[in-house]
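If you are new to this repository, start here. Below is one unmodified record pulled from the training split, so you can see the exact layout before writing a loader.
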Amino acid sequence: MPQDLRGLLEQGQLANAYAAAQQAPESTQLSRDGLVLLPPISNAPKIICLGLNYYAHAAESGHDKPEFPTLFMRGNTSLVGSGQPIIRPQCSIKLDYEAELVAVVGKRAKHVKAENALEYIAGYSVFNDGSIRDYQKRTSQWTLGKNFDSTGGFGPDFVTADELPAGAEGLKIQSRLNGEVVQDSSTDKMIFNVAETVEILTECLTLEPGDVLVMGTPSGVGLARTPPLWMKDGDTVEVEIEGIGILTNPIVDEIID
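And here is the target side for that same chain:
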C-alpha cells in the first residue's frame, strides 16, 4: 500500500491500512517518544486557507462580517510537524499564532452541494497558521506573510470524519502561548462551515484527495492585542481542538549560515 496519507486517500486504501494496523503485532509498533513527526500530509496538492472566518476575529481585525470567504493558499515548504520548531525569520519580529481546524479532502470533488459535501472530507487535523504580520500587510494579497518557511504547524494527528461530529462542528478550539490561554472558542462559530466551504470552492476548482482546507482562526490573535503579542525565540505554542489533538511547537529564531 502507499506509504503516506495522501497516497492512501488517492487509492482508497485508508480503511485497509487501518485494518492492517489493527492486526499488526505489538512488536511492530513504535512509541512517539524520540520520533520526528511530519505534518499528516506534507505533499498536499493544494493548501487552501480561509481568513476572517470567525466573526469576532473579523471584528478585531477591523473587518465587517464577510459575505464570501477570504481565501489564500499556502505552500508545502511553509509546513512543520508537531514538536518541530516554528521559525521566526530574521527579517521580522511580528510572528503571530492562529489556532485553526483542518479538513482533509478524501476524494475528487467538483460542483458539490453543501448537503453532500461532507462525503468528500476524509478527516480532520489541527493547524497553527503562523503569520508574519508586517509582510502580510505589505500587499493586498496575504500570500507572502503566510508562506515563510516552517511557520505553519500541522498535526500531529489525522482523525477520520466518523470519529467526530458532522463537519467537526461544536468542538472547543484553543491556543496557548507558554501555557497561557490566548484563544478560546468553538468550531461552531465559523462563519463558513466545512460543507459550505467545499460547495463554494468546488464551484470554481476541483478538490483532490489530500487537499488541505485550513478553516480560519477565532479571536485573540497577537496582532489585535494592546500591546501586540508576538511569538519569540524560546516560546512554546500549543493549539488544541477537542477530539482531535494537541499541536505543540517551540519557537526558534532563524539562523542564516
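Two things worth knowing about this chain: The chain has a mean pLDDT of 96. Residues 194-204 form the longest helix (11 residues).
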